[in-house]
Design brief:
single chain, alpha/beta, TIM Barrel, eight-stranded parallel beta sheet, two-stranded antiparallel ribbon, 10 strands, about 15% strand, globular
Length: about 250
């Protein structure tokens, strides 16, 4: 699994007495499937906590039944219905001219379908990583515990934010595995920028899309999870842990 750059970077972390902290988000869940079962098995096999970003639509009862006995899985809200309401190239659920009140109403309708899911956390994951100008204020007004988008390091704002940084797939020309070399180089770069910024505890987010995985993506994901589980210089965090760390002290 190691390439030279990653081996050297992890050695720097060990010399500093630091442990890299990882978390895992999988997007677009909308009911049970063989792909979801394989994802849950991959998590269970190594004890890696998983955040499943669920679209509040479709077979919610069937999905809840599958997750009832998956204690490592936390559930987040993946949008309000995953419909693109924008014109142009940049997709988004909320048109730019929607008011704060319109975004709030939509969020509350989506959450009303989510709250019965096992281990549901009031955390919002916008489809297409779209950040509407009113989104963060609307999330705060609706009582969300946090949100998750893409790529930030130490993002500051009124709500806790846990982002993802390592996309298993590449999307241009159709979804497919990003490739071992590209993935590990991105991981190395994320470790390096935390070390250089002194943000050792900032989690690195793995992003997967179980419904879009090809076989090379599955094979690499399962090997990557086994590899990290054996390492003393890496640890996996669950979403409730991340939210607990971000909660204000009494």
């Amino acid at each position: 699994m190691l390439d030279l750059g990653l081996r050297l970077e992890l050695a720097r972390w060990r010399r500093a007495g630091r442990t890299a902290r990882l978390w895992w988000r999988d997007d677009d869940a909308a009911g049970g499937s063989a792909a979801l079962d394989r994802l849950l098995q991959a998590s269970r096999a190594v004890g890696a906590p998983l955040t499943l970003a669920v679209v509040p639509a479709g077979d919610m009862a069937g999905l809840s039944a599958r997750l009832a006995h998956a204690p490592l899985v936390s559930v987040a809200q993946h949008g309000v219905d995953h419909r693109n309401r924008r014109s142009g190239r940049a997709a988004g659920e909320f048109p730019h001219d929607w008011t704060l009140e319109e975004v709030e109403i939509s969020l509350r309708c989506g959450w009303s379908l989510m709250r019965g899911a096992p281990r549901a956390e009031r955390v919002f994951v916008p489809p297409w990583n779209d950040v509407h100008p009113q989104l963060e204020a609307a999330l705060a007004a609706c009582g969300y515990a946090g949100w998750s988008v893409n790529g930030a390091l130490g993002a500051a704002g009124p709500l806790p934010r846990a982002d993802v940084h390592l996309d298993l797939l590449r999307w241009r020309g159709g979804a497919r595995f990003r490739g071992r070399g590209r993935f590990l180089r991105t991981l190395t770069a994320e470790l390096r920028r935390r070390r250089r910024a002194g943000l050792w505890t900032a989690p690195i987010g793995l992003l997967t899309h179980h419904l879009a995985h090809d076989e090379p993506a599955w094979t690499f994901l399962e090997a990557f999870l086994r590899w990290t589980a054996r390492r003393a210089d890496m640890t996996w965090l669950a979403l409730p842990e991340l939210l607990g760390e971000a909660a204000p002290a009494d």
